[in-house]
Specification:
single chain, mainly alpha, two-stranded antiparallel sheet, 2 strands
């Protein structure tokens, strides 16, 4: 039975380095210092979320339906994953600014793509009327 690779030391929680690779067929062994990919740093739950995210082509509404959770929960999970991967969580990319308000069409597209909730779209559309 194959075991899943762990990415952090169970004692000190430091990132682990792989030092040996072996081919099951010919038994050749390669020694060295090999690092895990960023995705290997994610928990199994986070990896399942990434797979679900890809399956739904990044559509948050689809993820909400499949997981049975709310929009803020999906956004929080996505933010946690970005932080785990070493990225900054700049969650302001979905927000509109007063300097460059979204057009009516952009608001409706964001709503259709599940990027904003119905109530958020109503608020944005109200601001466009002012």
């Amino acid at each position: 039975m194959k075991k899943e690779v762990i990415s952090h030391c169970p004692v000190c929680h430091n990132e682990l380095t792989i030092t040996k690779l072996q081919c099951e067929k010919c038994q050749i062994e390669i020694s060295g210092e090999f690092h895990l990919s960023r995705l290997s740093l994610l928990t199994s739950e986070q990896l399942m979320f990434v797979e679900l995210f890809l399956k739904n082509h990044g559509n948050i509404k689809g993820i909400e339906k499949e997981m049975g959770v709310s929009y803020p929960t999906v956004k929080k999970m996505l933010s946690d994953i970005l932080i785990s991967l070493g990225f900054e969580d700049n969650d302001d990319y979905d927000d509109y600014s007063e300097d460059q308000p979204l057009t009516r069409q952009e608001v409706l597209e964001k709503l259709a793509n599940g990027e904003i909730s119905f109530s958020e779209s109503v608020e944005l559309l109200k601001k466009l009327k002012k």
